[in-house]
Amino acid sequence: MSTPALRFRQLVKRYAGTPVLEGIDLDIAPGECVGLVGVNGAGKTSLLKCLFDFVRVDSGSIDIFGRSHREPGARRPLAFLPERFMPPYYLSGAEFLAYMAKLHGNRYDSAEAHAMLDALDLDHAALAMPARKQSKGMTQKLGLAACFLANKQAYVLDEPMSGLDPKARARLKERLQHARAQGATVFFSSHALADIEELCDRMAILHGGRLRFIGTPAACRAAYDAATLEQAFLACVH
Ligand SMILES: Nc1ncnc2c1ncn2[C@@H]1O[C@H](COP(=O)(O)OP(=O)(O)OP(=O)(O)O)[C@@H](O)[C@H]1O
């Protein structure tokens, strides 16, 4: 197998001694789309925070395209959308996208930004509007636009569908499929099992600090002898 895009090995994370992740092993291949699911508080965001070195790992390792996640340069191939994303409130949409482009070492291209807004069904008025005046869905789309404009090898998205209307969700799915068609890796957390089934090659179910299932959505249904993914998920986390 080629070098995984993301490799988690025996990852342990505790908060003030309380374990949240208790030995996570997961390899995600380049070009693969993997969905991370789990009940509220299972540790999905914590796993992603470990990946970006936002929180200290207690033991184990994470490699990004073969390099330790602790090296800042290792995270360069990744675009990240955090949970409850909110741009700096005083920046307009265009200022935020230009700022993110600069951080990623790219040039801000107004025509590309407009095309990306169209792809995500975000009103162009958002470019002139300060973030504090934008709706939840608008800021979410702005964060997604910044990710996709960065044009990275891998997209790590924490509940990317959060706050999106049905049209925007459909557009985001198209955009994710487009990224994959270009060879990008996608790793995202979600509570929407229908989205997982539609988009993902494999899914990982996090429960009780461990990955209880890793495999295709079809294999998950088969493993729990369930007619639907929801039933399989419920059986897995029972
Ligand atoms: N900074 C922190 N300090 C202490 N405990 C924390 C911290 N961050 C998260 N936790 C705890 O770790 C556990 C996992 O939280 P996390 O946010 O990773 O879960 P999640 O699966 O993303 O949840 P949700 O689906 O609700 O977003 C929870 O019990 C949470 O209270």
Automatic annotation (TrEMBL):
Gene3D superfamilies per record: P-loop containing nucleotide triphosphate hydrolases
Alphabetic keyword roster: ATP-binding, Cell membrane, Membrane, Nucleotide-binding, Transport
CDD domains in UniProt: ABC_DR_subfamily_A (cd03230)
Domain ABC transporter: 6-233
InterPro entries in UniProt: AAA+_ATPase, ABC_transporter-like_ATP-bd, ABC_Transporter_VariousFunc, P-loop_NTPase
Keyword Cell membrane included in the entry's annotation: yes
GO molecular function, one term: ATP binding
Entry superkingdom: Bacteria
Protein name (Swiss-Prot/TrEMBL): ABC transporter ATP-binding protein
Organism annotation: Massilia rubra
